[in-house]
Amino acid sequence: AGSEEGGGADSGGTGPVPGAPSKQHFGECLAAFRDVIVGFLEVSFAADELVSKDDFADAAAVAEARERLQLAADLTAGLARSFAAASMDPKELAAPSKDSDQSLPPEMMQMLERCMDENKAGATVAQTAEAKAARAAWEREEDGLCSALLGEEIWEALCWRRGMFLFAYIGAMIKKDPAALPLEVIVEAMGCFDLMLHAQGPIASDRDDPGIWEADSDGQHKDETARMFYHGVYSSSHLRALKFLAELCYWRWKHFGKSEADAKLTAVINRKFTHVVRHIIPGAGWTADVERDRVAEVERETLGGTSAYSRGLDDRPSQPP
């Protein structure tokens, strides 16, 4: 029999459906599923590494690895939709197991530890009405539902793993024969890193005209940490994801027709990475010369020689008083 906490209503709309899953059932399902995904990341890590170290020579193994990672993402999305349909908020049901992260493979643990260590408190992005509306919309969409279901850290880890495997595969293919690389693989990899970057919610700078990203400020934000958060960079892992996304955008433009739409996306993402490295964290050990040159290249070859995307990238930030 359904409990008072059961989801859904009967045909008359007067109460719970007999036999409908209860809130407790959803909570138990959520805890088990999170453990399954963490276990999957642990078990599949070694297999994916073998495929990568073999330089992706085994096409069947590559396909199996891609299917495994895609299945994990699809199952997460499907379960997230089920929770949403039952009006169940994963954040209220179960917290991730205290010990679950201890079984993650070293690569995942290092990524999560960097996220936690570097995600500084005290600096926030301005919560405008537009930002709040974007957040509310994101929470109702599949991306937000998946992040809530697994928790930001595990969802980021899954998206990161998918993105890194595909990025390495694409790099190997480009060295061998760029013409043999399907566009859909690049699109999939771009989507993985984009999901990872948005696992904590909408990124404020996505709504900007990139021209407002200046050497000393991003709109009203002048504090270093607030500016990093404004661009969705919460840790060095997020900055790496942005770097890989910039390269994928460039490969898509270069090897698939050099369309104007691909050129603009390449210019924006490479400008963002260059801006973060040169203007927000100069001297932190990162370089962005390659990304800066890509912006100029797409401007010159596809965007009619405009300097709209490269303007200001060579400016130096003011020295602190």
Model description:
By secondary structure, the chain is mainly α. Helices cover 61% and strands 0% of the residues. The protein contains twelve helices and no strands. It has helices at residues 23-53, 59-85, 90-93, 106-118, 129-140, 142-150, 152-176, 183-197, 224-230, 236-255, 260-280, 289-301. The longest helix is centred in the N-terminal third of the chain and has 31 residues, at 23-53. It is globular. The model is unreliable at 1-14 (pLDDT under 50).
What's the short story on this structure?
By secondary structure, this protein is an all-alpha fold.
> Beta-sheet strand percentage?
under 5%
User: Given the C-alpha coordinates, what overall shape results?
Assistant: globular
| Main sheet specs | none
Mean pLDDT across all residues, rounded? 88
Helix content: 55-70%
Coarse structural class: mainly alpha
Order of helices and strands: HHHHHHHHHHHH
- Total strands: 0
**pLDDT < 50 stretches:** 1-14
User: C-alpha Rg, in Å?
Assistant: 22 Å
Separation of the first and last Cα atoms: 69 Å
Provide tags for this entry.
mainly alpha, 12 helices, single chain, globular, 321 residues
Topology:
Blueprint: H1 23-53, H2 59-85, H3 90-93, H4 106-118, H5 129-140, H6 142-150, H7 152-176, H8 183-197, H9 224-230, H10 236-255, H11 260-280, H12 289-301
Helix pairs in contact: 1-2, 1-7, 2-6, 2-7, 6-7, 7-8, 8-10, 10-11, 11-12
